[in-house]
From TrEMBL:
Keyword Hydrolase: yes
Alphabetical keyword list: ATP-binding, Helicase, Hydrolase, Nucleotide-binding
Family: Belongs to the helicase family. DinG subfamily.
GO biological process, alphabetically ordered: nucleobase-containing compound metabolic process
GO molecular function: ATP binding; DNA helicase activity; hydrolase activity, acting on acid anhydrides, in phosphorus-containing anhydrides; nucleic acid binding
Record flagged with keyword DNA damage: no
Protein name: ATP-dependent DNA helicase
Residue ranges annotated for the Helicase ATP-binding domain, each copy included: 27-302
Domain of life: Bacteria
Length: 649
């Protein structure tokens, strides 16, 4: 196979030649294969050529139907081959990375019509893989034992049989277990409290083997924003520990749905602390021949950790509609944190002496030191409450303290945008009132290129927007259910129902079966099965209905399988600590935080409807507020494409 899809002349700049070939692709090769020539796509291609040639960050705002993915994929692939380093394509979430590589997806289209063998591999988050340690625990647990035993029995033979000359391959992907619901999967999948670095099974674990596989990609590594950010934040630490970074060196990065990157960056910078994990970690030291002074300190640290987490539990208040609990920070809590940090510091000093005595295994010592350092950093942040967002979550194994810094831009500026590789932000919604400064500033980007191109579709002809009404007062939920059932029952499927929260989806799910109009409908619910299987079922069964919380963005289903989008309620951000902190920092919280979030999400959600020139359909917004509040209605109407009016029905 030749390295480039065009005849390369060494005397001419590479990107100029790549640009000429890409222009041929859009003007000639794809139109010959039945694709239409799109001016917006060609304009975007010229803009990206400059960003790649100058190794700059570019905001590429392109409306639905411009075919922006094909443009950035072509540049990313050509440049990867030129630099001999893969490009990273980071999608907004894990469910979307599968969309790019599905048989009818954009990578397959390019491969087929350009006769190009594209090496595209998925870098999935560890929680999308089975954890052998947790599977063993679950097999001995109280529930679903048969299902877990079956999973165990179907593991590749090398997992449990130790023979000479074995070859290992990746396995244990969430997709391989489509029938497990999310709760069952969470019992056996990796979670942040698994210490893979010291796990005896890591060389035969599908999660670690998957990493070796995607690292070898020649063209593209496709991952989520979260995963890319995890790579950025753990890069130095992993290198210090002698581990490979999560992603190999890469030639360029594309952030698809790039307006969501800030949230992923904050999430990745988050620290999670748990008493049981701390106890387990330091108790390991007690199994060695250590000095008594260190043993006494370890016992004290375990007691202090337990007391601190008990206090945190008492100081945590549940938040309706969120699984994050608000922590009331008091002087007593701060005192306990200081005392705990003091003991950890004393242990760290003792470990320096201990390392000179060589009584502890070097490897084990390093793990404990890294972990203690992380706890010190996290609790240090906790003590400067003005610069962090924190919350607690509860599970059967105890409380987890979560600590997240407020500002991420300094770190991003240093580690992502200063790395001298082309960075493409691609989305239909990046600018606010025609300017990219808002998103650039939130991410710490000073110098950038940008452009906007509109969607080529005729929305006035293809789309309708309706706002069902129901009598004022009365039983709001029942009336809304009746309106939803009427919409769903009177149609032949093809409906995507979008919910702002899991709780609202669950409440809908519990009620819908009692509505006779929907009795014979096939309704699929997010959380019941693995998400890409659910999407595929929905796409392949035109009569089905899909109810989802996480598909406001990125879902791309052209054709009759998706001809209605029903917005269950306006998607304001949750009342959880992350948004509470944003509100606190804003001069006008509703206008600066809640409203822009809701409008952006609404625009994205409605954007799921028309995905090709032949698509026809309607968006229905089930909201009482837009009938009562004319200003709010105006803002929602402003989101609709030109020529589409919102009608009451
Ligand atoms: S390496 Fe990590 S994910 Fe794999 S079995 Fe061990 S703890 Fe679980």
């Amino acid at each position: 196979m030749s390295r480039y899809p065009f005849e390369f002349e060494h005397a001419k700049p590479f990107l100029q030649q790549a640009g000429e070939w890409i222009a041929d692709v859009f003007y000639d090769i794809l139109p010959e294969a039945g694709f239409e020539v799109r001016d917006e796509q060609i304009y975007m291609a010229f803009q990206l050529e400059r960003a790649f040639a100058e190794k700059k960050t570019i905001f590429a705002e392109a409306g639905v139907g411009t075919g922006k993915t094909l443009v950035y994929l072509l540049y990313a692939i050509c440049y990867a081959r030129y630099t001999r380093k893969p490009a990273v394509i980071a999608c907004a979430d894990e469910s979307l990375i599968e969309q790019l590589v599905k048989p009818e997806g954009d990578v397959a289209k390019l491969a087929q019509h350009l006769s190009l063998a594209i090496d595209a591999r998925l870098g999935k988050s560890p929680d999308k893989y089975l954890c052998l340690v947790k599977l063993d625990e679950a097999r001995g647990g109280p529930e679903y034992v048969e299902a877990y035993q079956d999973i165990h029995d179907r593991l590749p033979s090398f997992v449990n049989k130790f023979e000479a000359m074995q070859t290992f391959h990746a396995y244990g992907d969430r997709r391989e277990y489509p029938d497990l619901n999310d709760e069952q999967w969470n019992s056996i999948s990796w979670d942040p409290f698994q210490d893979c670095f010291v796990c005896e099974r890591r060389h035969r674990c599908g999660q670690t083997l998957s990493r070796e596989h995607y690292r070898q990609s020649a063209d593209l590594i496709i991952c989520s924003h979260d995963f890319y950010m995890e790579h950025v934040w753990t890069y130095e630490g992993r290198k210090r520990e002698g581990q490979l970074p999560l992603l190999p060196e890469h030639s360029s990065v594309v952030f698809d749905e790039g307006h969501l990157l800030e949230a992923a960056a904050q999430k990745a910078l988050t620290y999670r602390l748990k008493h049981s994990v701390f106890e387990q970690l330091v108790s390991r030291l007690l199994q060695n021949e250590i000095r008594e002074s260190l043993a006494v300190l370890i016992d004290e640290a375990i007691d202090r950790s337990e007391a601190l987490f008990d206090l945190l539990s008492r100081q945590s208040v549940a938040i309706a509609g969120s699984d994050r609990k608000h922590i009331m920070i008091t002087e007593r809590l701060q005192r306990d944190v200081s005392a705990f940090r003091g003991v950890i510091e004393a242990i760290e000093e003792e470990l320096v002496f201990e390392s000179e005595l060589y009584t502890l295994d070097d490897y084990q010592l390093r793990i404990v030191e890294e972990h203690l350092e992380m706890i010190q950093k996290a609790l240090g942040l906790f003590q400067q409450s003005a610069s962090l967002i924190c919350w607690a979550t509860d599970s059967s194994e105890g409380l987890t303290l979560v600590i997240m810094p407020r500002a991420v831009k300094e770190v991003l500026r240093e580690r992502v945008f200063g790395s001298n590789v082309p960075v493409v932000f691609s989305s239909a919604t990046l600018s606010v009132d025609g300017s990219f400064d808002y998103v650039a500033d939130s991410l710490g980007i000073g110098d950038y290129l940008s452009f906007s191109v509109d969607s080529p579709y005729d929305y006035a002809d293809q789309m309708e927007a309706v706002a069902p009404t129901w009598p004022p007062g009365g039983a709001a939920f029942t009336d809304k259910m009746t309106a939803a059932a009427r919409l769903l029952g009177g149609s032949d499927g093809g409906a995507l129902v979008l919910f702002p929260s899991k709780e609202e989806l669950q409440r809908f799910k519990a009620s819908i079966s009692s509505y006779s109009e929907c009795a014979n409908k096939r309704i699929l619910f997010e959380g019941d099965r693995e998400i890409s299987h659910l999407i595929s079922d929905f796409q392949n069964d035109e009569a089905s209905i899909l109810c989802a919380v996480s598909l406001w963005e990125g879902l791309d289903i052209p054709g009759p399988s998706l001809n209605k989008v029903i917005v269950w309620s306006l998607p304001y951000p949750p009342q959880d600590p992350v948004y509470m902190a944003k509100r606190q920092a804003a001069a006008s919280p509703f206008e600066e935080v809640d409203m822009p979030y809701m409008l952006l999400r609404m625009k994205q959600g409605m954007g799921r409807l028309i995905r090709s020139r032949d698509d026809r359909g309607f968006v229905a917004i089930l909201s009482e507020e837009i009938h009562d509040d004319s200003k709010l209605r105006e803002r929602i109407e402003a989101l609709l494409p030109e020529g589409v009016a919102l009608k009451n029905v």
